[in-house]
Amino acid sequence: MVVVEKDLVTLNQDIAGQEIGIPVYRIFDKSIVNKTKAAGSGNKPVPKVYIQSAVHAAEMQGSAVIFRLIEQLKKLTLFAEFTLVPNCNPFGRTQRAGEYLQGRYDATTGNNWNRFYHYDETDVVSFVESLEQAEIDLIKSGSETKLVRSFKSFLKHKLGSKLDKDWGVNTAQFLNTTLQEIAVDADIVLDLHTGPSSTRHIYSPEFLAGQATAFNIENIISIPPKFAGALDEASFTPWVHLTELFADRGIELKYKVSAFTIELGSQENICLTQALSDSAGILNYLQQHHLVEGFVGVEPVDITTTLLKNYKTLFSKHAGMVEYLVKAGDKVAKGQVIARVLNSLEFDTKHAIVDVKAPDTGTVILHYPSAAVQVGTQLFKIAVHG
Ligand SMILES: [Zn+2]
User: Fold this and answer.
1) In this structure, what CATH number is given to the domain that contains residue 358?
2) What is the whole-number distance in angstroms between the Cα of residue 197 and the centre of ligand 1?
């Protein structure tokens, strides 16, 4: 029997003390969870999947996707426990600039809401050093379950002590660390975002780029498994480092957390019809990993994988009003005019319009959302296949 539990977890308060929370949904099959519990503590636990959306508050399509996922998970056979957190940023959600949500940045500090998750390399080293020989022998014999469980609780404890610091943490650190405390138990972590004006794409660590095709998203950006502050990186990097430390001792550790950032189109926009096919890609991935059963599958799309070093930003060399001549998702050729910038001080000269050309051949993944640009604005991001 599939059970849906719902909590409102308070993270923010207004100055009158009014609580502003995040909805946390937990979905699982009671009989499967009970069966695993009854099998005893040595058994593999039921896998856990964590999915959040809109940590960049204006990027709301992921919340529509979580709605669709909940609808469908209720009808499927579940071999995992799901934790789903839509609109997970109660600070960004309440900051507006004009007609729009403030979005990517804390309006007060300028901090990016997706760059303050926690990872400390020295934590992993001290965890390995603290292991008893008997625990290491267990891993050598191929039994990883106990190690995985104790490393997860170690990481959770570290997150708790970060929030407990005498000197406190900034708002983005508070938000990110609190969300990470919920996510840290999971085996699969999906962080749902959108671009500004964007086609669908997914960031996958290099070691999972093959698996990432199951999401059925046309563009995969393959990133090195390093930490730069985002949730996906904070989720898999400790395990990558742990594996390396064991490899140094000649021990192969197979377990890793799988984490992806999925970019579902453009910000300030939801489409419930599109959310159905977005959720289908996620269910397809989950079914391939035997976490759900009964899903009908997807019609596979052509997928291009681009290394992060070939995912290039085109910065504007001109200020003015910009007309975008290509859409996100379009293929462009080197030298093709992809935008033009209009300058009102030159209306009476031949310099009124400046063409912007694609520096290389590739796929336009996203462009700046506004028609007003200055020198240095990130005009386009292009997956280069030149
Ligand atoms: Zn984002």
Assistant:
1) 2.40.50.100
2) 12
Domain termination site, one of 302, 322, 344 = 302
Average pLDDT (88-96) is: 92
Spatial neighbors of 98 by CB under 8 A, at least 6 apart, are: none
Question: Domain residues for 278?
Answer: 2-302
CATH number, domain at 201? 3.40.630.10
Average pLDDT, the chain: 96
Q: Return the structure tokens found at 179.
A: 């969300």
Neighbours of ion ligand 1 (CB under 5 A): 56, 59, 193
Q: What is the mean pLDDT of residues 181-195?
A: 98
Cα 56 to middle of ligand 1, angstroms = 5
Average pLDDT estimate for 156-163: 96
What does the pLDDT average to over 284-293?
98
- Evaluate whether 46 touches 12 at the Cβ level (below 8 Å): no
- Element containing residue 235 per DSSP (H, E): helix 231-248
Q: Are residues 154 and 73 in the same domain?
A: yes
12 or 53, greater pLDDT = 53
User: If you measure from the C-alpha of residue 360 to the centroid of ligand 1, how many angstroms do you get, rounded to a whole number?
Assistant: 25
For tokens 């563009």, what's the residue? 219
User: 195 alpha carbon to ligand 1 midpoint, in Å?
Assistant: 6
* Residues forming beta bridges with residue 9, ordered by sequence position: 22
What pLDDT shows up at residue 41?
A: 62
Q: What is the pLDDT of residue 97?
A: 87
Are residue 223 and residue 80 in the same domain, yes or no?
yes
Which strands, in side-by-side order, build the sheet including 219-223?
A: 2-13, 19-29, 81-85, 48-53, 188-195, 258-266, 201-205, 219-223, 304-307
> Could you tell me how far CA 351 lies from the centroid of its own chain?
42
Residue type, 160: G
Copy the structure tokens of residue 70.
């909940």
Strands 219-223 and 304-307: parallel
Domain count, the chain: 2
Q: With 80 as the cut, is the pLDDT of residue 39 above it?
A: no
Q: Among candidates 166, 158, 174, 179, which has minimal Cα distance to 13?
A: 174
Same domain, 141 and 171: yes
Question: Which tokens in the block code for residue 59?
Answer: 């990027």
Query: Residue 258 C-alpha to ligand 1 middle, in angstroms?
Result: 19
Interatomic CA distance for residues 157 and 270, integer angstroms = 37
> What are the angstrom distances between the C-alpha of 201 and each of 219, 264, 317, 324, 374?
5, 7, 26, 20, 26
